[in-house]
Amino acid sequence: MDEPSSAPRAVKSPAGKSPGGDPTIEDVAAVAGVSIRTVSRVLNKSPKVNAETRVRIEAAIEALHFRPSARARALAMRRSFLIGLIHNDRNALVLDAIQRGVVEMTAQRGYELIVHPTPLDPEDAIGDVLAFVERSRVDGLVILPPVSGVPGLAAALEQAQVRAVALSSVPIAGFAQVIISEERAAGAEVARHLLDLGHRRLGLVNGPADTASATERRAGFLAAAHEAGAHVAEAPGDYDFASGVAGAEHLLSLPDRPTAIFAANDVMAAGVLKVAAARGIAVPGALSVIGFDGSILTRMLTPALTSVLRPFGDMAAAAAERLIAGIEGRPDTLSFDGRLRVVAAESTGPASPMVP
Question: What 3-state class would DSSP assign to 108?
Fold first, then answer.
C-alpha cells in the first residue's frame, strides 16, 4: 500500500497551492497525503497504485487544476513526446488532411507533431531523415509516400533503432508496420464505374511513373478496362494541374477521343475539366471525368468531381496510433480498412451515342 510522504511539506496558500505560482506536483502530493513518486505513478498511468490512492490523487489534481509540466514528464520518461511526419508531397490538400489526422491522434495522446519535408534521392533522403531524427529527438516517425518507398530507408531506420510507421499503396520490405491503401483495386473500380456507364473509349492521365501510387492505379485501371475489351489511350502526368491540362489536350485531340477520362488525382482532373470547358465539351454529356483522392477540391469544382475517396484522416490517425502504441508498449486500438471506393458526383454519366 502506498504510504503518505514523510518529506516536509511546502507551505500552502488557502487554495492548496504553493504561494506565487501554478500548482506543482508537490502540492498534489501534499493535498492527497502521498509521496511525489506516487503522484508521478498516477500521472504516468502506472498500475502500481491501488484504487483508493489513485482516486484520492485524481481528486487532488482536479481540485488544484494541476497540469503536469511537459518538459518534466519527458525527462522523467526519457521521451521527447514528439512525433515526426516525413513527406515529399506537393499536394497541399492531401498533406493538410493527413496532418490533421495525425494531430488529432497525437493531441489525444499528449504528443506534439513536427512536419519535415525530405528529398527523394535515396542517399539524400536517408541522410536527411536520420539527421532530422538526431536533431529533433522525436520518439518516432510517420512516413508518407513516396518517401516511404525510398530504397534503403527502412533498413537505415531499423539500424538506427528509430520507430516508424509507413503509409503506402503496397507492402514495403523492412517496415514492420505499414498502413496500406488498396489503390490497384481502386483503379479497377474506376474502370468498372465508367464501363457500367457504357464507356468503351477511355483516357488515362497518369501520375509520376516512378511512384507506387501511380503504378498501382494505372495497373488496376488497365486490367479491368482491357478485360472488358475497352480501348485506353494514355497521357503522362505528374500529379499537378499543368500535367492534367497537358494530358487532356493530348487525349481530347485524338481522332477517336475518349468519352471518359480518368485522371490519377483530383488536381489533374481539375486540369481535364478546364480543357473540356475551353473546348466546349460538355461534362458529363459528352465527356465523363473522374479523379482520385476524394479531396475537398471535388466539391469546389463545377461540375462536382466524381473521385475515389481515400480517407486520409483515418489513415493518418491509424498510423499515429500504431506508432504511439509501439512507443508506449501497448496494443494499438485503431485499424484502417484499406479498401477505397468511388464516390459518384456530377462529372460522370452515361456514354453518349452522339459523341463522334
Answer: helix
Q: Domain containing 275: what range?
A: 183-311
d(CA 39, CA 56): 10
What is the pLDDT at residue 332?
Answer: 81
Same structural domain, 296 and 187: yes
In the chain, the percentage of residues whose pLDDT exceeds 90 is 67
Considering the domain architecture, whether residues 93 and 112 belong to the same structural domain is answered as: yes
Q: Quick check: is 354 in a domain?
A: no
Bridge partners for 135 per DSSP:
none
DSSP state of 178: E
The residue type found at 149 is G
User: pLDDT at residue 5 above 50?
Assistant: no
Q: What does the pLDDT average to over 1-12?
A: 40
Q: Provide the whole-model pTM.
A: 0.77
Domain of 73: which CATH number? 1.10.260.40
Residue-wise pLDDT tens digits, 206-238:
999 989 999 999 999 999 999 999 999 999 999
Q: What three-state secondary structure class fits 78?
A: coil
The reply to whether 219 and 151 lie within a common domain is no
How many domains are contained in the chain?
3
**Which residues touch 78 (CB under 8 Å, ≥6 apart)?**
none
The answer to whether 333 and 321 have CB atoms below 8 angstroms apart is: yes
Domain annotation covers residue 201:
yes
